[in-house]
Structure formats: C-alpha cells, structure tokens
C-alpha cells in the first residue's frame, strides 16, 4: 500500500488581500511560513521518499519549509486552476459557494480560464502517474485548493472538501494508493 499526502500551500499575500490567485502568484506571508513550519512538524516521522510541487513559487516555498533541503520535482500539472482574465482580480467577482446555480464553470472558462473537469483530469493523471512509479511509497505533493478540489472531484468516490471546516492553507489530504485506486484516509489540519 502506497501513501499520497497532497498539501495546500501556505497563506499568501493574495489570500490576505482576497485576490483571485490561479496561475498568477504571490509570496507566502509570515503566517504562511508559520503554517508551513507547523505542517512540517505534523508530517515529521513520515518516511517520504519523493516530493513534488506545483511550479508556483508559493508551493515550492511551502515544500522547502516543510521538508527542508530535499530534492523535489516541479510539475506544471499540479498548478492551480487557471482563472483567465480574472487572475489577480478581487475575490468579490467569484461566484458564490452558496448559490449552486452559478458555478466557476459558468464564468471563468468563458474568459480564458479552465473548466473543473480539465483541472480534475490533469490532477488525476499526474498524481496517478506519480504513484504508479515503483519506488514511490510515501509521496508528498504540494498544490493548491482548487487543484486539490479538482483532484477530489475526479476520483471514483469524490470527497467534499467543504466539510469539517473546509480545506485551509497547509491542510493535507492523506490517500492510500493500491491497485490503481486512490482511497481517502483523512484531512490533516495544522
């Protein structure tokens, strides 16, 4: 049985300023750095053999704080959902989570962004390819809230990340991987 720990990056300047942050980037805040340190302490003792990160600076910085000076691979497939022309704009433009009749798919793809099914497909394909490697038993991958949500939506048994307080910065999804199947174990909250 293999283990995947899929982590969201630490808090960023755009998170604090309530800016839409997909493929654009902003640095970790002091709080984000502290969150990553707490996540590192939480994961201490897990015998990770491979590390992966989105190519975004916020994810790479988070991984480097969590794991220290370890080699890791940056993958574009682990990037956040692309929000097109809305990148860097106010989160006030986002569709409401409380109104299921108007979703992100109704807005962002029409302005150069991605559909959720495209994010789901690239995340599931990338993480499956990683976990299929024979020497990958304990993997830590740092990504983004929307990308992790897409991954969870793309599984045969989708997981609702809005439960239990949501999926906050530096939270970690733990999955097992066996016979080409991801099974959700738990959310680790810092």
TrEMBL record:
| GO MF assignments | phosphatase activity
State the GO CC annotations: cytoplasm
Q: Which residues form the signal peptide?
A: none
**Where, in this chain's numbering, is substrate bound?**
8-15, 58
State the active site: 9 (tele-phosphohistidine intermediate), 80 (proton donor/acceptor)
**InterPro entries given in the database record:** His_Pase_superF_clade-1, His_PPase_superfam, PG/BPGM_mutase_AS, PGM_Phosphatase
Q: Name one Pfam family in it.
A: His_Phos_1
Q: What is this protein called?
A: Phosphoglycerate mutase
Which organism does this sequence originate in?
Intestinibaculum porci
């Amino acid at each position: 049985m293999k283990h995947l720990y899929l982590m969201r990056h630490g808090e960023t300047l755009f998170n604090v300023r309530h800016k839409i942050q997909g493929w654009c980037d902003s640095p970790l805040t002091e709080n984000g750095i502290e969150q990553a340190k707490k996540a590192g302490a939480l994961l201490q003792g897990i015998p990770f053999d491979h590390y992966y990160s989105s190519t975004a600076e916020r994810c790479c910085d988070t991984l480097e704080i969590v794991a220290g000076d370890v080699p890791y691979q940056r993958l574009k497939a682990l990037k956040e959902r692309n929000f097109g022309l809305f990148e860097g704009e106010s989160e006030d433009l986002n569709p409401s989570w409380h109104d299921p009749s108007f979703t992100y798919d109704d807005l962002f793809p029409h302005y150069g962004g991605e559909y959720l099914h495209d994010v789901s497909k690239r995340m599931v394909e990338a993480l499956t390819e990683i976990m299929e490697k024979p020497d990958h038993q304990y993997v830590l991958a740092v990504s983004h809230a929307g990308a992790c949500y897409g991954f969870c939506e793309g599984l045969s048994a989708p997981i609702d990340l809005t439960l239990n307080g949501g999926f906050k910065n530096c939270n970690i999804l733990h999955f097992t991987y066996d016979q080409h199947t991801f099974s959700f174990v738990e959310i680790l909250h810092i």
